[in-house]
Amino acid sequence: MVSLLGIPPQVLFGQLLLGLINGSFYALLSLGLAVIFGMLNVINFAHGALYMVGAFVAWLLLTYAGVGYWGALVVAPLVVGLLGIALEKSMLSRLYKLDHLYGLLLTFGLALILEGAFRHQYGVSGQPYPIPDALKGGQNLGFMFLPNYRAWVVVASLTICFGTWFAIERTKLGAYLRAATENPTLVQAFGINVPVMVSLTYGFGVALAGLAGVLAAPIYQVSPLMGSNLIIIVFAVVVIGGMGSILGAIVTGLGLGLLEGLTKVFYPEASNIVVFVVMAIVLLIKPAGLFGRER
Amino acid sequence: MRTLLLAGTALLTLAGTAIPAAAQVSDNVIRIGVLNDRSGIYADLAGEGSAIAARMAAEEFGNKVAGAPVEIVVADHQNKADIAASKAREWVDTGGVDVIADVPNSAAALAVQGITKDKKRIFLMSGPGATALTGAQCSPYGFHWTYDNYAMAAGTGRALYEQGKKKWFFVTADYAFGQSLEEETTKMVKSLGGTVAGAVRHPLGTADFSSFLLQAQGSGADVIGLANAGGDTVNAVKQAAEFGITQSGQSLAGLLMFISDVHALGLQAAQGLMFTEGFYWDMDDQTRDWSKKFEAKAGKKPTMVQAGVYSAVKHYLKAVEAAKTDDADKVAAKMRELPVEDMFARKGKVAANGRMFHDMYLVQVKTPAESKGPWDYYKVVKTIPADTAFMDPKQSGCPLVK
Question: Where are its TM segments located (chain B) (predicted)?
Answer without folding.
Answer: none
